[in-house]
Amino acid sequence: MAEPTYTRADLRAEAARQHFELTRDPDHMGVGESMGTEAVPSTNRTHTWEQLLPYDADDGKAYSTAPDAVHDLISGAVNLSAWAVEMGVDGLKPSETGFTISSSKQPISRIHLAFGPGMSHEMRSGLIASISHAVDAHLRSASCGASLSSHGPGRA
User: Fold this and answer.
1) What is the Cα–Cα distance from 95 to 99, expressed in whole angstroms?
2) Closest CA to 66 of 56, 47, 52
């Protein structure tokens, strides 16, 4: 078999491109169809979208509003495809814990974390706390008026 004329980096770049293309213009009908039987998180997953917004109640007007909003969120999402592909290659899983640096008006930076399956809970927690303290100390010393907030279960 001949040597391939492409590299692993080429494969990763193509995977990232295709991942992004799948989210760039999602199938509008498919968004709504895939939501129907999914549990809604704010209901403690006890109700589906179809249960919350029965089509028969108003000829589907309320039900179509939610998929429209989801479609807009998908279409407006930033392209993190290369990051997602690289995390998968490295066996990392995204953490629900992250940090947002905000000015008085809006977020100006966000830090997302990903960890390997072999990292202990103690090491994860320590790393999250260290990042939080280091960024917070920097923001205080810079006197830039920005503040740090954390989100997710492993907040520091």
Assistant:
1) 11
2) 52
The rounded distance, in Å, linking the Cα atoms of 88 and 68 is 30
Q: Which residue has the tokens 């549990």?
A: 39
Distance separating alpha carbons of residues 124 and 7, to the nearest angstrom: 33
- Report, as an integer, the average pLDDT of 93-114: 92
Of 120 and 104, the structure prediction assigns the larger pLDDT to 120
**Going by DSSP bridges, is the β-strand pair 147-151/93-102 parallel, antiparallel, or unpaired?**
antiparallel
What's the sign of the alpha-carbon dihedral 128, 131, 133, 136?
A: negative
Strand partners, 115: 93
**The pTM of the whole model exceeds 0.85:** no
User: What is each CA distance from 132 to 45, 98, 108, 127, in whole angstroms?
Assistant: 31, 9, 16, 9
How far is the C-alpha of 152 from the C-alpha of 129, rounded, in Å?
13
